[in-house]
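Blinded run. Sample ID left blank on purpose so nobody reads anything into the name before looking at the predicted structure. Input follows.
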Amino acid sequence: MTSAYAVYSDESGCFNEQYQAIGTVSGEKNRLSKLQTTLRNVLDDKGVTEVKFNEVGTHRPKIEAAQAFIEYGVDFAKREMIRIDVLVWDTRNSRHSVQKRDNIANLERMYYKVLRHISEQWNQRNWEFYPDEQSSFNWEEIISYLDKTQLPRRRPNILTLFEEERCYINFTTLKQMESHKEPIIQLSDLFAGMARFTREKGKQCVDWLCSQKRNGQLLLLDYEVGVDESSRRGHSRFALVGKLDNLCKKCRLGVSLNKRKYLWTPSGRRPINFWNYEPQHQDDKAPTK
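Blinded prediction complete.
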């Protein structure tokens, strides 16, 4: 059986960093194919092979490619052709501040949360899954776990037999991909990287964007004389976040930056969803070794 829906994913943040994130892009395969072609054309046009958030610095073609990726990601999402879901978590909150935390198992659990959410939002059970191959955990185990997860139906039919109402996630394909060969994984990385970046440097980002607006400057990355390389790299990333924020506001997608000083989406049903995970109850703890 061939699935009509697919999800691509990548992660941002190492286990020794406070914030970690999973970025996903999902939708019908034919629409994802259109996005894939569009993003590949951007890479070819700018003469770059890959766009990753942690590689965005002062190289203008790569910056411009990242900007274009953001534009197309928002455009496809606003037309509900795709979803972009990013799950971010704080390793120092009450859920994660446990002795002998099993980081790999915890990452698997967080993948479980975001993939289940995506399945519910699309109201689809059959999926092809394409994670970045750099990931270091047991994909077969998490897929097996998800395959046993029951999904609630959005529109129950009282005439449907009880057995048929049991709807479980079913992954028909699991294939790890090389990010430099798959632009949709690069888009996942870009959104995950922006989300994590604003958790780390959100106030600085908002302050810089406000100063740009006060000075009447556009986010064209024409740096002032004397600004060092490190600051330029940071400003490039601030500008990408600002571009995303402006586009989301223009399209009324419900993504917020200024209120909490980091990217978040109040409603998880929105097509661009920055989900900053909070412990659900006292016993919501990360797995331990």
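Unblinding after everyone has recorded impressions. Residues 155-165 have pLDDT under 50 and may be disordered.
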